[in-house]
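Supplementary Methods. Inverse-folding protocol.

Structures were first reduced to a discrete structure-token string of length 121. This string, shown here, constituted the complete conditioning input.
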């Protein structure tokens, strides 16, 4: 996984982000453990995809990607994926990573999903 050059601090590991108990930028690799499902975000008014990933260091986390801002990622259970985005460690249903796409306004660090030789951002 190649980091994105930016004016933002380098992302932390998932384990470090989970230990901080505060939102933070993270980058990690893992294996998809659930089929993607789609929903309409009530705050963003945009379609999202969500799926579970087990990180290489054994943490389970939900990935939530805004497919209005980045293309859908055609993952299936068992696929390997690289993730960079904002970790919310204490979300209502367990940890999640969102902002896995570019920020058109440039106010938030760009995230991405690396899958099958392609970067989805």
């Amino acid at each position: 996984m190649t980091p994105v050059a930016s004016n933002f601090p380098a992302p932390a590991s998932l384990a470090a982000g989970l230990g901080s108990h505060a939102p933070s930028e993270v980058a990690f690799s893992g294996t998809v453990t659930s089929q993607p499902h789609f929903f309409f975000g009530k705050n963003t008014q945009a379609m999202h995809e969500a799926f579970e990933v087990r990180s290489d260091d054994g943490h389970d986390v939900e990935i939530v990607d805004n497919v209005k801002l980045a293309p859908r990622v055609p993952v299936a259970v068992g696929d390997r994926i690289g993730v960079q985005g904002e970790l919310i460690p204490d979300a209502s249903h367990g940890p999640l990573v969102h902002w896995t796409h570019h920020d058109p306004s440039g106010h938030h660090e760009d995230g991405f999903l690396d899958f099958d030789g392609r970067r989805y951002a």
